[in-house]
Amino acid sequence: MENSTPLNQEKETQEPKEAEELWEGAAAASPQDPGFLAPECLEEEPRSDTEPHRRMSPSWGRQSRASLSLEDLTGPLVSSSPPLLPSVFPSTPPLIASLQDRVASSPAERVPGGISDSATPHSDAWDSASAARQITSHYMSQSEESAFPQSQPLQFDLRGPGDASPDKPKVKGLRFDLLQEEDSNSNCDPDQPEFGANEAAPSMLEVAIQNAKAYLLSTSSQSGLNLYDHLSNVLTKILDERPADAVDIIENISKDVKMANFNKKLDTLHNENEMLPAYEIAEKQKALFLQGQVEATDPELEEEIAESSLPNVMESAYYFEQAGVGLGTDETYRVFLALKQLTDTHPIQRCRFWGKILGLEMNYIVAEVEFRAGEDEEEVEEEGVAEERDAGESEAGEGEEDELPKSEYKAPQAIPKEENRTGTNKYVYFVCNEPGRPWMKLPSVTPAQIVTARKIKKFFTGRLDAAIISYPPFPGNESNYLRAQIARISAGTHVSPLGFYQFGEEEGEEEEMEGGRDSYEENPDFEGIQVTDLVESLSNWVHHVQYILPQGRCTWFNPIQKNEEEEEEEDEDKEEKGEEPDYIEQEVGPPLLTPISEDLDIQNIPSWTTRLSSNLIPQYAIAVLRSNLWPGAYAISNGKKFENFYIGWGHKYSVENYTPPGLPPVYQEYPSGPEITEMDDPSVDEEQAFRTAQEASVLSADENEETEDEEEDDDD
Amino acid sequence: MAMQTALVNGRFMGDPSHEYEHTELQKVNEGEKVFDEEVVVQIKEETRLVSIVDQIDKAVAIIPRGALFKTPFGATQVNRTFEGLHLSEIRKLSSYFHFREAIDLKNKTLLEKADLDPSLDFMDSLEYDIPKGSWSIQMERGNSLVVLRSLLWPGLTFYHTPRTKNYGYIYVGTGEKNMDLPFML
Fold first, then answer.
1. Transmembrane residues, as ranges (chain B) (predicted)?
2. Closest Cα of chain A to B34: distance in Å?
3. Measured between alpha carbons, how far is residue A366 from residues A90, A259, A342, A432 in Å?
């Protein structure tokens, strides 16, 4: 049947099937003779009496109805129901009249099926109904009420008596009610005779309205949209969302609605292989979350737990959070897992989350690591640039011919770096840019790098192989600079409560040139210090990392000794030796485990600031130490446990601005003595005196003319 | 006020009533003689604090492009349809503006101004900041958060979640300008 054509509306429908049945009945009735129709209609009525709202259900095409109605619908069908109609739909007649009037006066363009206006009143009725249907189907807001003044009251009336299942109070629902109402009304149109009378009355206005609507419905040739639909979409969106001051953003809303049209269609150019950076890093970090060995049996697990060198990063993070320091739970946990990965892949005795250094493009997460005894990784061949320079210059000096003066410059002795596990190289540092990325081992630090690092101040870029362009030229790239800064920060700011570490008993007293003791061990008898004590007095904290001497090492290295050894190899040093000082004063620094109260002040502020994490609950508070010399270095302790952390840019604080060091003076290539120094030209008086002296000598040797001549020649 | 506070160096004490003392030589006329006299200028810390906060705001407070717009009547309004920066724009400094009256805008050449949208581009963008490279742009979690850090006032951090309306900035630091920036880049 035509009425089962699925021209479905997007709106909700009520019992479409039943309505279809209803219409089927009507359609079936239509081609038959009126006599038959009457009982059909009558049959329909009881149904409509009980459930009049069925008629309000939409569900099939207006077009189909119109088409089937035109030829099939006969007068009797309409006329058979009039006696019943008024009982159910008392206000129908006015509607029908108005509909018919409109239709008669102005042909609706969208009326389907090629209905001719000169058709029977029934056709007109259908026309009007379908036209009205067409028109109202586009109206989505109640602002269109003016077009159908009578329809509004009709709707409400209709809903009143037969409202068994209440419709949703939407405009669309009402609209469809109206639709159905018109259908049913037109189906049982009683007002045949009245129809013709009201045709001509409101013609001008109706014509204008129809024209306006037709214009609005015209489709754009470019986009395929029409203004009518667009406006209704915009107004629907506004009414749904109800933004404040909608008039100010109406253009943007309109643009958004248009944009939404594009998103509905399936994008055939969908890029399926696009990997967002967020997914990339998530993939890397997912690997962290996976457990390494699946076959972890019980004894192995216990062993692993007992030997684990992994620090409890989350616990430290908890304490630091009370101090207001940290990276946030998310990132800390990822760092935790990354550290676990590090300890799983390397033979590590002890590991600690040292901190985070910020950089321009990327940041560094730093882990301080101590390898197991004997499992030290082989040293990467990193020749100090200074050493190379030294060797190169002396070679160049030796290779030259005798004619050219040999450069007697001897670069200052390169101070050798400290052995691993001692001094500045006590710990090995690993860095990574982000948890999930591979850990990179930083090379050991040389004294020259530390000395130069003290003189420059550069931001880290985040790439370990970046060159450091500075004056004085830094011997190395960013990985070396980073390592040097880490060494300085550790030496300056790693502190622990007094008594936590003690010197080993077995070590002999060392008063040698090596300086103070350089190793310590944990004190098993440490009983903790009151948190309030830790905060009040700085002498309760001690440095447990050796001080770095100005030389760049922790233990003094005397370059002269080395010099004497090398003297045998090189021949031209005899002259130079005289110029070098015979004795270089040994550099000393504060010994290990010096209380930090001895730290020098920066101008007028102490180098450490202390505070309790909470003044309100002192029994669970922790002591927080903040370094003013290295902004970003923190130390916390709850009395028994302590932890150091650094988060910052990696530079020292100075009140004055940074000034690059001046250039060194020009090198004295040769000693300036009387034999080289250029003599001043004699003045006139001096020349005169010389001449008279000469003449005097000439006179004295007057006898010998030959000698006179010779002397005169010589004297010139 | 800015001139006064420029005389003070060093960290903040933490006590708003703390007074910094700055001695300077001033020429004082006394009768016929002109001699230098040491004058001690006292500056209170709260003055310094107010001035620093203002300087930081004027120098490095930033907002993403499109968050504010200017109506033809001149009033600046919050853009309620701001949907956040696009992924292609977040790494560019030109997508962020200084949150202050435009200083540099009039000095732009006509060619540059032609590409600007007068309703959106009415503030200085970060692109022309001196020295170049005084902002560090980083992404967190892949592309889901962009963080800008100022290197001129270390401690100023700006964040923005692309394609959402979230953005903001905060300053946590010592309140001192990084005058060494040109050396450090």
1. none
2. 32
3. 86, 47, 12, 7
Band of residue B137 on the pLDDT scale cut at 50, 70, 90? very high
For residue A595, being part of any structural domain is answered with yes
Q: Does A333 touch chain B (CB under 8 A)?
A: no
Chain B CB contacts of A362 below 8 Å:
138
The ipTM assigned to this model is 0.89
**Least CB–CB distance from B11: residue in A457, A605, A651:** A605
Which residue has better confidence, A517 or A466?
A466
**Overall domain count for chain A:** 1
Please tell me the predicted confidence (pLDDT) of residue B53: 92
Q: Are A556 and A515 in contact (CB under 8 A)?
A: yes
Query: How confident is the model over A15-30, as pLDDT tens digits?
Result: 444 444 444 444 444 4
Tell me the chain A residues in contact with residue B9 when contact means C-beta distances shorter than 8 Å: 655-656
List of chain B residues whose C-beta atoms are within 8 Å of the C-beta of residue A459: 151, 184-185
Q: Are A698 and A712 contacting, i.e. CB atoms less than 8 angstroms apart?
A: yes
Q: How far is B180 from chain A (nearest CA, A)?
A: 6
Spell B122-138 as b/e; 16+ CB within 10 A means b: bbbbbeebeeeebbbbb
B114 CA: distance to closest CA in chain A (Å): 23
- Percent of chain B at pLDDT > 90 equals 25
d(CA A493, CA A653): 13
What pLDDT, on the 0 to 100 scale, is given for residue A595? 84
Residue A358 included in any domain: yes
Sign of the dihedral through C-alpha B126, B127, B132, B135: positive
Parallel/antiparallel/unpaired status of strands A521-522 and A501-502: antiparallel
From CA A35, how far away is CA A21, in angstroms rounded? 20
**Contact list, A360 vs chain B (CB under 8 Å):** 133, 136, 151
Q: Does A604 lie at the interface with B, CB-CB under 8 angstroms?
A: yes
A457 and B183 within 8 Å at the Cβ level: the answer is: yes
Q: Where are the beta strands (DSSP E) in A480-593?
A: 495-497, 501-502, 521-522, 541-543
Contact between B151 and A459 using a beta-carbon 8 Å cutoff: yes
**Among A518-522, A691-695, B88-92, B105-109, which is the least confidently predicted range?**
A518-522
Query: Domain span at residue A545?
Result: 310-375+413-504+518-561+587-648
* Nearest-by-CA chain B residue for A330: B141
Chain A residues inside the 8 Å CB shell of B11: 605, 628
- Specify the pLDDT at position B159: 94
Q: How close is the nearest chain B Cα to the Cα of A645, in Å?
A: 17
Mean pLDDT of A519-543: 83
pLDDT bin (cut points 50, 70, 90) of residue A110 is very low
In a domain, A476, yes or no: yes
Mean pLDDT in residue range A126-150: 45
| pLDDT for residue A590 | 81
